[in-house]
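help with this.
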Amino acid sequence: MFLTRLIYVSTLCESCDAKALDDILDISRDHNKQSHLTGLLSHNQKYFLQCIEGSRDAVNHTYNHILNDHRHNNVTILYYKEIDSRQFGDWSMGDIPQSSLTELLNLQFSASNQFNPYEMSGESAYQMLLELKQNLPSE
């Protein structure tokens, strides 16, 4: 089965608080381990930017689940590509919340230092996630 990389952005529902975010991460990590998916998530209190890597079937199945999850709104694919190898294979789901440290990366890969991944190209989103992974220890 071909390896695939999917990067999507979504807007979190207004009722999503820190506990809901922790629940999403815990469930995602368990699911991803079972499905042999890897990836990285960058987020703030409003937006998700997530990369998922794995078999085409597992990536597509997971994306369809996200589309039907009421906690995600305006789910949009920024990048979808068959790949030869994983770039985020160290994590079932690495997590990098937005902070003052990520503002410079936002400015490097988008039009402002504010995190709004809807304003990024797929390639810019991918390059930003590659930069962010440098600051995340392996699981």
Remarks:
- The chain has a mean pLDDT of 88.
- The chain has four helices and five strands.
- The first strand starts at residue 3 and ends at 12.
